[in-house]
Amino acid sequence: LVNGPSLSVVAKSPHYDINSKLQIMAKVLDGLEFLHSNGVVHRDIKLDNILVDEEDNAPKIIDFGFCHNPLIQRVFEQYGVEVPQDAVGTRSYASPEVLDDGNLVNPNPRSDIYAAGVVFHNLLTGEMPFGWLDAHKHIGTLLKHLEEPTQDPRNYLSREATKVTDKALVKDPNERYQTAAKFKKDLLELDPDLVYAERVHA
Questions:
Q1: Which of the two residues, 49 and 140, has the higher pLDDT score?
Q2: What are phi and psi for residue 95, nearest 5 degrees?
Q3: DSSP code of 66?
Q4: Per the residue annotation, which of 44, 100, 101, 112 is the catalytic one?
């Protein structure tokens, strides 16, 4: 068990400075890289599915109920656990390709990377990149993810930080970060003092 808050709490907490948030996100991406290198696509990466240990700030990815992996699926089937293969996960974090054509039979790690981009944007700004979406209103969510640019209405982020979040959230998965490791590399090259356009309390 993890003794600590979810990233939804961390994103709004004054106890975590920008350097801490960058390091936490880098470790989240390490976790995603490990999963993907072992053939696992989580399919429901979101703030509430990442817990941060209070002792060492180590994040833990939880809730693998929607994950895609042939071996895990066989184990679940052996014990009579049904894994939904037509599930989108949480629509506010779902990639355009998943929302658009239901690319669910063979989910791609780049959809997890997109969701991680949503997480990272929220971790830095305290807001969702497309505004707060009603997860039950499928059409509205779909249109925002497919057509609208990311939002930073308070101009929190610097140009350098925006380049990283925007690359993680590119509509075309072929132009997105292809691996979590590449996402992490660019993230760690950010100067913590230059993440925000103006000095914002993180």
A1: 49
A2: -70, 155
A3: T
A4: 44
Determine how many CB atoms are found less than 10 A away from the CB of residue 65: 15
Q: How far is CA 164 from the centre of its chain?
A: 13
Residue type, 103: N
Report how far residue 27's alpha carbon sits from residue 201's, in angstroms, rounded to the nearest whole number.
Answer: 22
**3-state SS assignment for residue 14:** coil
Mean pLDDT of 37-59: 93
What is the phi/psi pair of residue 127, to 5°?
-135, 155
Active site residue 48: no
* Residues constituting the chain: 202
Whether 113 and 166 have beta carbons less than 8 Å apart is answered as no
CB 201 within 8 A of CB 161: no
As a whole number, mean pLDDT of residues 80-90 equals 65
Check whether 143 has a pLDDT greater than 70.
no
Instruction: Please tell me the predicted confidence (pLDDT) of residue 181.
Output: 98
- The whole-angstrom separation of Cα 124 and Cα 57 is 16
- Answer whether 172's CB lies under 8 Å from 113's CB: no
User: Would you state the pLDDT for residue 123?
Assistant: 94
- How many Å apart are CA 113 and CA 183, to the nearest integer? 8
| Chain position carrying tokens 């590399």 | 185
